[in-house]
Every structure is written in C-alpha cells, then in structure tokens.
Amino acid sequence: MSHRTLCTSESRWSTARLRRGGLTRRLTTRVLPGTMALALAGAGLVALAPPALALAATTVAFSYTGSGQSFTVPASVYSISVDVFGAQGQDGPEGGSTGGLGGEAQGNLTVTPGQVLQINVGGSGGYGGAGAAGTGVEPATGGGAGGGASDVRQGGNGLSERMLVAGGGGGGGNWIGSAVSGAGGNGGGASGTAGGNGSDGAEGGGAGTASAGGGGGLGANGAPTAAGGAPGLGGTGGAGASGAGGGGGGGGWFGGGGGGGIMSSPSATVGSAGGGGGSGYGPAGTVFHSGVRSGDGLVSITYAPAAADIDVHITAQPRLGILVPYLRYTLTANNTGPDTATSATITASLPRGTSATGLSAGCTTGAGTVTCTYEAIAKGAGTAKSFDIPLHLLSLGRVSVTGTRTASTPTDPNAANDSATANCTVISILLATCS
C-alpha cells in the first residue's frame, strides 16, 4: 500500500454528526498540515426580532387667547404633526347673515429639539388677520367681522415664517327690511370661498387663494367698494352709511376680500354682501379642508420622541490564521425602527487575559473590552463590525463573549434585545467549536 504525503498547501475535511437534546448538529473539522485542527460547529435556530416599539405620542392643544403663544420642541423630537383650524366669521348683528366657517390644514413639520415655534390661534371676528366689519346706518345694520386665521411659525413671528395656515371664514352681511344679504365665505383649505352677494348688486368679497388676496366686493346704491384681502389680512367690509355694511374678509395665507356694503334705497329694503374666506397654506403633503370650524380657531400639535430599537447580534466563528488559529467575533447592530438610528455603540466583554486583534474601523480595545461605534443606520438595516481573539490565549473549556448596546441615539425603546452572547468551547490551543 502506498502512502501520499500531505503537502503544506493541502488540507482535508472530515464530518461527523453529534446528537444533543434530540437535535442533530453537524461538526466539521478541518485537518491541517502538521496535525493542526480547528473545529467549526453550525449554529441552530435563528430567532426573529420582535416588532419595533414606538414611544407614546403626546398632543398639546392651543386655544384662542387673543395673543401669540409658543411651543418649545421637546428633547429627541424631530417631527411634529400639526392640525390647524381657522376661526369662523361673525354673523351680521341682530339676525344678519351667517359668517363662513373656518378651514383646516393638517401637516407634518420637521423640527429640532429646543426650537421655539410661534402659535397664533384665530378668533371669531378678531385676532388672526380678520377683516373688520363694514359699518351701517346704525350698529345693528353693520356686517360681521371676518374670522382670524390660525398658523404655526418657525424662525420668527413674521408672515414669511408661517409654515402651516388655516384660513378664517368671512363675516356675514346684514339687511334692512326684508332684503336678502350675503353669507360669509368659508375659510380654506388651499383656497377660501367667496362671500355671498347682497341685494341691488352688492357683491360678495372674493376668496383668498394660494397666490392672492380676494378682491373687495362692489358696493351698491352708491356705496364704496370694499377693501381687498392681502397676505395675512382679510379686507374690511364695505360701508353703507345710510344702509347696511358688508362682512369683513377672513384672515389667511391670503385674506378674503370684504363684502360690498349698500346704501339705503327708496324702499328702505337693502342687504349687504358677505366677506370672502381666507386661504390656507402648508408644505407638500398637507391635507386641507374648507369650512369645517365654528367659533374660534384651534391649533393642536402631536409629537413622539424619535426612537430606534437597536437589536444586538453577536456571532463567533473559528478561523485559520497563517500561524495562529483564532476566533472571529462579529458584532451587528440591527435597527428595527421606527426611526433612523443616528449613532450606536456596542461594547463586547472579552474573556479574562485575552486581547483583540484585527479590529474593524470604528472599534477600539482596552481593559478587557472591545467597543465599536456605528454611524447612521436606517430602519430595517444593520451594520456589522468584527474583531479576532487568538485561540492560544483562551483557557480550555467554555468561552463566552457578550456584546451590549451601551449608547445610541435616538432613544432605544426596547431593552430586551440590547445584548447577545456567543459561546465557544476551546478543546485545545488548536481546536474550538462555536455555537
């Protein structure tokens, strides 16, 4: 029988099956030149990560106060959901026509922790850029004032800082005798609606739109034309010195025009026009509704701290070095969401008396540990980093290395998966199995 010499560049594999706890596991041993052997053990079942946990949401509501308010963005909050309602326009006094309803704008805004937002809640007939009512021959025959717009502002309190706006409704017209008067137009929405016409050609105020204020309504029987809307302001209703005043325009991104007033007629039966509703505004994706709010406006802000659940995994695998076999440990930071992790740190505890080599970029070692830092990890993604421990440094028997999340941003809502352990059995300075 001939014998063949095993060359230094050759190796051969032998396979045996081990049975433990009713499960069959495959043990693969690689036999190296000079009788060096390093064993690899296949792992068993892989557990599925639980669903990501979101932190509880908080809603803060701002009601009408007649002045500006503010909201300071809490820590770890980078996005807010905002629901803004404009105010209803006033009815014409003593049985005049009804004021238009306020609009609604629902949108999301990107924010930073500590940022101060300016909150303006429109009032029915007042604060929020509402147009004043047109005067009549007496107070009882004047129009209704417009409704104020509600908005949220970033970076200041000027009109240019408005990020989300809901328009106010136009004020209602009024009448003398039994004439028809015009109702106020509804606030927007992306655009308001025009005010209703009065009698004898008194025109309703035009609606505020995304790009212009509503035109002022023409007066009747010699009454002047009402004022048009402007950025943030509703127009004043037209005067009816001997008759009925028109309704004021609603405030908005662009305000609605004032309704036309009307002078008295020989029959003393006249009706003025309603003011136009103001328009809304918001970033892409904003949802608008026109004519949904009665009474004063409202602003509500809903937020939840950003959260990113880092699910820590660690694996160990025997490897063959040129001179010294070693165990390769891989630390993986998996982000199960719900938000992007901007950074994470995992620290692995090393067996006593050992040191790590071959560290991935971002990993450092010292005092019996390896610490790996991770940059941004998107939801559903993972990043792996590795290090090696030479086999001859390990004591015989069971060897465990545990990786633990020691820091991450934003908040990790689930501590249950913050650590994981890889177990190996060192059989000799040349032989180990890992599971």
Automatic annotation (TrEMBL):
Top EC class of this enzyme: transferase
Principal subcellular localisation of the protein: membrane
One cellular component term from this protein's GO annotations in UniProt: plasma membrane
DUF11 domain: residues covered: 326-423
Residue span(s) of domain ALK/LTK-like glycine-rich: 72-281
Compartment(s): Cell membrane
Region (Disordered): 187-208
Topological type in the membrane: Single-pass type I membrane protein
Keyword list, A-Z: ATP-binding, Cell membrane, Disulfide bond, Glycoprotein, Kinase, Membrane, Nucleotide-binding, Receptor, Signal, Transferase, Transmembrane, Transmembrane helix, Tyrosine-protein kinase
GO molecular function, one term: transmembrane receptor protein tyrosine kinase activity
EC numbers on record: 2.7.10.1
KW Glycoprotein (keyword) present: yes
A Pfam match: ALK_LTK_GRD
Protein name per its UniProtKB record: receptor protein-tyrosine kinase
Organism: Streptomyces sp. NBC_00060
